[in-house]
Design a protein that fits this description.
This protein has about 550 residues and is α/β, with parallel strands linked by helices. It contains 17 helices and 11 strands. It binds guanosine-5'-triphosphate (GTP) and magnesium ion (MG).
Length: about 550
């Protein structure tokens, strides 16, 4: 078998490192977004793989694992040509793992594997092999099983030792082999105690075991018959081990298989993670509801009312303006407008922010909650549980900050307070008319006074046959209220328009708040989820 130059172990290790970087990214992004057990598995896989790679590829760790009495220790002795491992009829025999190390430099690796029982051998054809004799996985002693589980999670090659009696045990197939169904390339199955079977029984047993392995997903694994007693198959097993060790590929293959397995499970559980955005309609609903909750209607009415109020002060009948003056400007009641000193609610983005006195209408607040819920449902639909709950809580926290931001938006609203030009013109006309009325009245009174005291009457001043003083007084009395009425009509129309403009301005500021506080925050969380999905694709 000549090594393929395009996939040298180094290139494979580089490829694996890239996958591990993707996994590390998933572990980071997965915080709070993936289910806790999934995250733990990712972190464990990442830590194990990184640590194992850190010990290099020059050693290949092969574990002899299997049920008690299958002959692991006997086979270990047969391969190594020693009697170091204790074998026996008392079950279970092996309680802590042994390591046979071929060649030098495996110390740190074995420290990491936490195996203190080591036996050094000359390298030879097995140079780089670290052969482990494990305790039984089906033990009455729970510590044995724990030790087996700990080691099968980290070794490079599995050497499952089975015997003719127990090769079909569920403890082996369901407990281990099925779980490692993707690890066929690093799995050896040794049918030991083959000397106990005659030729016919051998063929049947091997076929049956092969079928069981296929069910486990390990159809490509060839069963190797061995006997620790007669030595049959032991040389073949040594050659197989030598070949695997020489390839120095098992580490990468094993970790790749772990990552494949993890990636499949993750892809299944994260299938709902497709790219998504805050929909335009959901955003629009929130903006509309938030504008209302920020006092849209109150503001519109107050701006219109304020305009009418100030309009009647500017162009109303001067003789009745004092009545108007006693009423407050509707905007001032909301803490807005020009009449009141501006109370600052702090500085935001360099702009002094007013605190308004708008008290949110409970119905509008309920509608805003409803719109936010709708947005939340829209954007979290189909997400995996943990990711969904996180996104929901992100949205809820943006909801909590809205009242303050919305009030600030209301405080920044353009209230369209500037008085129109015609107010000044009509106002002046009103004063002139009022002055005419007063002059006319005084004039009439003066004429009456002169007549009363029997002074000679002054010359009459007439215009087209009518006395001017009467014209002035009557004209003022009729014209003043008439102009005031016309002014009121015009002001009502202008006020309504300005109310709508102010509402539009509020809506714009509110849209800014919603985009910044809600949409941006949600989008950034969605971005993290997309990134998680991309990292998974890289894995
Ligand atoms: N006939 C026969 N007997 C074997 C063979 N291999 C092992 N045995 C016997 O099976 C018994 C158990 O062997 P061990 O090697 O201790 O088995 P083990 O798998 O290490 O058992 P634990 O350490 O308890 O998990 C011993 O009595 C061995 O002599 C074999 O290939 N053929
Ligand atoms: Mg043993």
């Amino acid at each position: 078998m000549s090594p393929d130059p395009t996939t040298s172990p180094t290139a494979e290790v580089d490829g694996l490192r890239a996958r591990l970087r993707a996994l590390s990214r998933i572990a980071d992004l997965g915080q709070g977004r993936l289910d806790e057990p999934v995250l733990t598995r990712i972190q464990t896989t990442l830590a194990t793989a990184t640590a194992r790679l850190g010990h290099g590829t020059s050693h290949t760790v092969v574990a002899l694992a299997g049920a008690t009495g299958s002959g692991k220790s006997s086979l270990f002795n047969a391969i190594t040509g020693t009697e170091w491992a204790t074998t026996g009829i008392r079950r279970p025999t092996t309680s802590s793992p042994l390591a046979a190390v071929y060649g030098d430099g495996a110390g740190p690796l074995l420290d990491w594997l936490e195996i203190p029982n080591r036996q050094r051998h000359e390298g030879g054809s097995l140079e780089g092999l670290v052969l482990l004799d494990l305790p039984d996985h089906d033990s009455k002693v729970t510590a044995h099983r724990a030790e087996v589980d700990r080691l099968v999670a980290v070794v490079d090659v599995f050497g499952w030792v089975v015997d003719p009696q127990k090769y079909a045990d569920a403890a082996l197939h369901e407990g281990y082999l099925r779980q490692f169904g993707r690890h066929g390339a690093v799995t050896m199955v040794l049918l030991n105690q083959i000397d106990r079977l005659d030729a016919e029984a051998r063929a049947g047993t091997i076929a049956h075991l092969g079928a069981l392995l296929a069910e486990d997903g390990l159809g490509e694994v060839r069963v190797l018959p061995t006997s620790a007693v007669t030595g049959e198959g032991v040389d073949a097993l040594r050659r197989e081990l030598a070949a695997r060790v020489a390839e120095r590929r098992a580490i990468v293959t094993r970790i790749d298989a772990d990552l494949d397995w993890l990636a499949t499970d993750l892809t299944a559980s994260l299938s709902g993670l497709a790219d998504r955005t805050v929909s335009a309609s959901a955003r629009e609903q929130v903006v509309i509801a938030a504008t209302e909750a920020a006092g849209g209607s109150q503001l519109e009415a107050a701006v219109a009312g304020s305009y009418r109020h100030r309009g009647s002060l500017a162009v109303g009948w001067p003789l009745l303006r004092w009545i108007r003056k006693t009423r407050p400007d509707p905007l001032a009641r909301l803490g807005l407008g020009t009449r009141r000193p501006i109370e600052t609610g702090g500085i935001k983005d360099g702009v002094a922010v007013r605190r308004t006195a708008i008290s949110a209408d409970p119905l509008a607040v309920a509608r805003l909650d409803e719109a936010m819920r709708h947005l939340s449902q829209d954007v979290t639909r189909g997400l995996p549980e943990t990711a969904r709950r996180r996104l929901e809580s992100v949205i809820e926290s943006t909801r909590d900050e809205l009242p303050e931001s919305l009030d600030e938006a209301a405080g920044r609203t353009d209230l369209h307070l500037e008085p129109p030009r015609w107010w000044a013109v009509l106002g002046t006309v009103q004063w002139v008319v009022a002055a005419g009325l007063i002059v006319g009245l005084i004039w009439v009174l003066a004429l009456w006074g002169l007549a009363w005291f029997q002074f000679p009457p002054p010359p009459r001043v007439q215009w087209r046959g009518f006395p001017v003083q009467s014209l002035l007084a009557l004209g003022g009395l009729i014209l003043g209220p008439l102009l005031a009425t016309i002014g009121r009509r015009l002001t009502a129309v202008g006020g309504a328009r300005r109310g709508r403009q102010a509402r539009a301005s509020l809506s714009e500021h509110v849209a800014g708040v919603i985009d910044e506080d809600v949409v941006l925050t949600v989008t950034s969380e969605l971005g993290e989820l997309s990134e998680l999905r991309r990292a998974l694709a890289r894995l």
